[in-house]
Write a structure and sequence with these properties.
112 residues; alpha+beta; Nuclear Transport Factor 2, Chain: A; four-stranded antiparallel beta sheet; 3 helices; 33% helix; elongated
Length: 112
């Protein structure tokens, strides 16, 4: 019985360590997921836009990784990404997403 409990504790420590240091997406993945978020504005933005946004129209990208607030999020080191796109046409939307899988949390700023 003692070996089973020790084994479970070791497994829990390994799972916690992985969750604490989970890898963040690469730059290419961040840009792809952000553009996909912008093209699916009906779920995350007040107004929809005409057409689709292509990666080729991006002038520059600024990213920042922010710690999520809350006790559980601080203990498990959860983070979110803020990605600011600057387009040729002048739009500068900011996309917030989960740093690990790219799930879109919201869009702010003008699209065009």
């Amino acid at each position: 019985m003692k070996k089973v409990i020790i084994g479970l504790v070791i497994i829990l420590i390994i799972i916690f360590a992985y969750e604490y240091q989970k890898p963040v997406m690469t730059s290419g993945e961040i840009i792809e997921k952000g553009v996909a978020c912008l093209n699916d504005t009906k779920n995350y933005y007040k107004e929809s836009h005409n057409g689709t946004i292509a990666i080729e129209h991006i002038k520059s990208v600024t990213t920042s990784i922010d710690d999520k607030s809350g006790y559980f999020n601080e203990v498990t080191n959860k983070r979110e990404l803020s990605v600011k796109f600057k387009f040729d046409g002048g739009g500068e939307p900011t996309v917030k997403m989960i740093a690990y899988n790219g799930k879109c949390l919201g869009i702010t700023g003008p699209l065009h």
